[in-house]
Amino acid sequence: MRRIWATLKIAARALRRNKLRTLLTMLGMIIGVGAVIAMVGIGNGAKSQIEAQIASMGQNVILVWSGSFTRGGVHSGWGGAGTLSMDDAESIQREIPGVTLISPEVRSPAQIAAGNQNWSTQIIGEGPEYFQIRQWPVVSGAPFTDQDVRSANKVAVIGKTIADQLFPGEDAIGQVLRIRNVPFMVVGQLLPKGLSVQGNDQDDLLIIPYTSAMKRVQHVTMLRSINVQTAKPSLLNPVQQQITELLRQRHRITPGKDDDFTVRNQQEIADMATEQSKTMTYLLAAIAFVSLVVGGIGIMNIMLVSVTERTREIGIRMAIGARGNDILLQFLTEAVTLSIIGGIVGIGAGIGASKIIEAWKHWPVMTPALWIVAAFFVSAAVGIFFGFYPARKASRLDPIDALRYE
Q1: Same structural domain for residues 46 and 186?
Q2: Is residue 364 within 8 Å of 358, Cβ to Cβ?
Q3: In the structure, what pLDDT confidence band is assigned to residue 71 with cuts at 50, 70 and 90?
Q4: Domain check: are 118 and 42 in the same one?
């Protein structure tokens, strides 16, 4: 223990001898570790926000879109073609056990107006079950009903952004707005949700009965999509498979032909979204780890210079009894001390940078404790790896040649 303490004191004295050089050497480690901590924090924060947004879709949800990824060799994407009908939606609810709720959906952008105010927004036609499927409560007024759907009534539920734009400072409930010159009465206002991960305003929408959207606004007969809810999570995969089989049968799609629809369950959507987030996090962390390697190379470079400068000192120490292992330990301790101190400061800098970004850009930041611990040990490992060669070189100096060195 006394030997280790003496080695630490010698290492500290050697590092204090060239304060500026020591600081500049540690800077590479500080930047590398700080970048890793900040990037991982931002990446994990984005991942948690994506998961929260997927969860806001509701519980046990399956989404059926018209159009397919590769229909006829053409990449059309979700909702790329009108291939779903009301009969499809009714058949899903009637024939597939485990389905508890469905909401047929049509949507389109449109200009809306009220008084002398106007606004461009997203018009969504849904069934009354939509609010239950999405677990999106109406905080003012009430949602529309089955009777409103059957009668294609001109009623609407709006988001907070619509209320603020068209009815500033007023109660929106009972007010009349126009969608493509068709008057609709506001019967409910949704609970505000704020911005999505992509930066889209989730409260900038207007929901009307899907029959009203099809007959009075869009004049279409086909659906864009169907929202389906199952009784429990374990039914997601089997119900998804049964929906696919049912729609292929109803659309007369022969074996080997591509579907003209797309079915995805909530877990698949979450996995796709979080996988992209994970890839970006790992990419950012890999780039930041390059800074660690550069910092390690800086440590090796400075330690090699230090060995050259202190060749005579090494010779004197060997002449009075120091062994090669003692010299190796001394220089290795200096390298590890540089990297550990740089790592600790870098961890603080990374957490600080994350908090600044979180406050400035309002991005969620989450830095797992595991990554902080990993960054500390990686910085120590970098010191050992890049410090070993200079230390080994110092320990193998010939004492006589070292004493003669000027």
Answers
A1: no
A2: yes
A3: very low
A4: no
**DSSP strands (E only) in 131-258:** 138-141, 155-158, 176-179, 182-190, 205-209, 225-230
3-class secondary-structure state, position 166:
helix
CA 379, CA 343: separation in Å to the nearest integer?
A: 5
Residues 136 and 202 in one domain: yes
Alpha helices in 77-221 (DSSP H): 86-95, 130-133, 146-151, 160-166, 210-212
Residue position matching structure tokens 């309002």: 362
One-letter amino acid of 360: W
**What is the dihedral sign for C-alpha 104, 109, 110, 116?**
positive
144, 128 contact by CB (below 8 A): yes
**Residue 54: what pLDDT?**
66
225: closest CA among 111, 81, 98, 56?
Answer: 81
What is the Cα–Cα distance from 364 to 195, expressed in whole angstroms?
A: 12
Query: What is the end-to-end Cα distance of the chain in Å, rounded?
Result: 34
Q: How far apart are CA 305 and CA 330, in angstroms?
A: 15
Please say if the pLDDT value at position 50 is more than 90: no
From CA 329, how far away is CA 327, in angstroms rounded? 5
Please state the rounded mean pLDDT for residues 228-248. 91
User: Do 283 and 352 share a structural domain?
Assistant: yes
Per DSSP, the chain holds a count of helices (H) and strands (E) of 13, 10
Around Cβ 173, how many Cβ atoms within 10 Å? 17
Token pair for residue 308?
């050259």
CA angle, residues 260, 263, 266, in degrees to nearest 5: 160
CA–CA separation, 50 and 360 (whole Å): 20
Measured at the CA of 142, the angle between CA 137 and CA 143, to 5 degrees, comes to: 70
pTM of structure: 0.64
